[in-house]
Design goal:
This protein is α/β, with parallel strands linked by helices. It is about 35% helix and about 15% strand. A seven-stranded mixed sheet has the order 2-8-7-6-5-3-4, with helices on both faces. A four-stranded antiparallel sheet has the order 9-10-13-12, with helices on one face. It binds pyridoxal-5'-phosphate.
């Protein structure tokens, strides 16, 4: 396909950094939409001119409105998505809905994979002190999650299964449907971390029948740091009572009642303290563009460009730490070429923006705004760098 035929490239002009760099890092921080300048300027104007009235006029309902905008990307029903600062906090809100103490319930086992993002692991490991029995399923190959062993570990004692939809290290797509089905069969709940899928892999949260889903907007959704989302299936949302709570979750926040909380309906029910307004404002332009482009079209292009990256890595004999089957592969290709960490530093110095992760290598993550020529050029730059490196063998 030539760039002339690539309709998605018309969005390039909306992302200033693409004029200056080869931006292959949307798995980490998506490019900033130009409209964020205006969004943050408008935020400052509202604060400067409307002052405290801004809460009533715009800010109080902002998390609900933007949660709904995000919800359309994952086919979430209205008012089922609350916004938070990061995924770790989303996990904590879910954890706070349950009791791990064995006296009350025999169901206190947490099953997760060692391919989860570390922050999520650290959070769940720390819940042992409250009675959680944590069971970690280990990867065999450093790329995939052994679905059979994961399913076997989910049993009648299992309370929660926090797993990544797409693995940050290898871009492997977990079999979320099988995990959710097994969890439901034994009465457990799944918290699907969709950080590395939403925006590049289509996600229909209702079709998956996920109990909870969370992720941030700063990667494939081009929404910047500071905003994460938590989806709670509506039937659960009506009855769960998070004890990580606060006045935004109260049925009548402005009554300033004393004593225990009376919970509002979702999504406010899953919020706690004052919303992070500037980052929510900054997230909006990215969400709008992703909605407009459509994740199906992004996925189609991503499959083509990630296949090309693998083909090029193979041609040079470099190790690929990402599934070769496009149906099992998200938007990133992790390539462990010789001296990969040093190569990633050199790439950054030459304005080819990538990152490097242990047990992964250099992560290349083209998004809808990248040209095929940029994919070729990123790899050609690696070849140049390797030629210039002193031979270490
Ligand atoms: C799958 C996944 N989950 C979670 C995170 C980050 O968690 P948090 O939002 O708590 O920083 C990342 C990367 O930043 C990730 O790739």
């Amino acid at each position: 396909m030539t760039n002339m035929q690539d309709d998605l490239l018309r969005y390039r002009s909306q992302f200033p950094i693409l004029e200056r760099t080869n931006y292959m890092i949307s798995n980490s921080l998506g490019a900033m939409p130009r409209a964020v300048y205006d969004a943050l300027h408008a935020y400052a104007d509202v604060w400067a001119t409307r002052g405290v009235r801004a809460w009533e006029e715009r800010w109080w309902m902002l998390a609900l409105e933007v949660g709904n905008e995000l919800g359309t990307i994952i086919n979430a029903p209205k008012n089922s998505v609350s916004l938070h600062q990061n995924v770790t906090t989303c996990q904590a809100v879910v954890a706070s809905c349950f009791d791990f103490t064995a006296q009350k319930s025999k169901r206190n086992k947490i099953v997760y994979s060692d391919m989860n993002f570390p922050s999520v692991m650290y959070f769940w490991e720390a819940q042992r002190q409250y009675g959680a029995q944590v069971h970690m399923v280990k990867t065999d190959d450093g790329i995939t999650v052994p679905t059979g062993r994961l399913l076997d570990a989910i049993d009648e004692q299992t309370l929660l299964v926090p797993i990544s939809h797409v693995i940050f290290r290898s871009s492997y797509i977990n079999d979320a449907r099988a995990v959710i089905e097994k969890a439901h069969k034994v009465g457990a709940h799944v918290i699907l971390d969709t950080f590395q899928s939403v925006g590049t892999v289509p996600v229909d949260i209702q079709a998956l029948d996920a109990d909870f889903a969370c992720g941030g907007v700063l990667k494939w959704l081009c929404g910047g740091p500071g905003t994460a989302y938590l989806y709670v299936r509506p039937d659960l949302g009506k009855k769960l009572k998070p004890n990580l709570t606060g006045w935004f979750a109260h049925e009548n926040s402005f009554a300033f009642e004393t004593g225990p909380i009376r919970y509002a309906d979702p999504p406010f029910r899953f919020m706690n303290g004052t919303s992070h307004i500037p980052s929510i404002e900054a997230a909006r332009p990215g969400l709008k563009i992703i909605q407009e482009v459509g994740v199906e079209r992004i996925r189609e292009k991503s499959k083509r460009q990630t296949a090309r990256l693998i083909e090029l890595a193979d041609q040079h004999g470099w190790r690929v730490n990402t599934p070769r089957d496009p149906e099992q592969r998200g938007g990133t290709v992790s390539i462990d070429m010789p001296e990969s960490q040093q190569v990633s530093r050199e790439l950054l110095a030459r304005d080819v923006l990538v990152d490097w992760r242990p047990k992964a290598g250099v992560r290349f993550s083209p998004h809808f705004y990248n040209t095929d020529a940029e994919v070729e050029s990123a790899i050609a730059t690696v070849v140049e760098i390797l030629k210039a490196l002193p031979v270490t063998a």
